[in-house]
């Protein structure tokens, strides 16, 4: 099975103190520590497990600049077979549709049975996977936390839905799935693995290589533009309840009654 996983290089929130720049147009990006998007890491691990079980190969792909190559090598050190970098100044400022447009063109240069993305990335929109599937005119499922291979043409997919329930669907291949955290436990990447892939050639494609008009991607093609970043004003602090379990429960009931939560 040929599997493509779309990944993204994002600021590592565990290593950075995120601040808004003075103009309010972006976060301060100087000296930020970057890593692979957490959801994407689960998608790569799932792809590797599927390949190990049924055969085939795993390719990881990202849209970014030359520095984004580091996340491809990290995922290749994890076990992915190949990497593809989509890098071009024309891609800068792309909205979700622009990113999906670039990815679609790259997907069509290969032949993939299954395409995985993380459920969402740093902007939180969770839209690129669905847009990519729509552009490719193939099935899509979001928030996937289970994949069972049926045969070369079908898979069973589990989705996390409201109330903690599990929804199972049979899907035709090829398809696009956005992967939820918790589907697996991503493996540790050691120094030996990183050194092993350090010199592996990773092909890079720009807009012209993909047959794309520069006006269809990047800021020029963006239909959604981010106008402002701001930090919400701090509200009042939480009220901490003290006492025995029975006393705390009684206080909570009184509070809920006073606020109309229960009668």
Please describe what this structure looks like:
With 263 residues, the protein is of the alpha/beta class. It has a single domain (2-221), classed as 3-Layer(aba) Sandwich (Rossmann fold). 27% of the residues lie in helices and 23% in strands. The chain has seven helices and eleven strands. The chain has helices spanning 38-54, 69-78, 96-107, 128-136, 191-196, 218-221, 245-258, and strands at residues 2-6, 9-11, 34-36, 57-63, 82-86, 114-118, 140-149, 154-161, 165-172, 175-179, 204-205. The chain has a nine-stranded mixed sheet, sandwiched between helices. The protein has a two-stranded antiparallel ribbon with strand order 2-3. The longest helix has 17 residues, at 38-54. The chain is globular. The mean pLDDT is 92.
Tell me the CATH topology.
Rossmann fold
User: Which geometry do the CA atoms define?
Assistant: globular
Number of helices, where a helix is a run of at least 4 consecutive DSSP H or I residues = 7
User: How many beta strands in the DSSP annotation?
Assistant: 11
CA-atom Rg in angstroms = 22 Å
Low-confidence stretches: none
Please identify the structural class as seen in this structure: alpha/beta
Q: Please give the largest β-sheet.
A: 9 strands, mixed
Beta strand %: 15-25%
Q: Looking across the biggest beta sheet, what order are the strands in?
A: 9-8-7-10-6-1-4-5-11
Question: How many domains would you count in the coordinates?
Answer: 1
The quaternary structure here is single chain
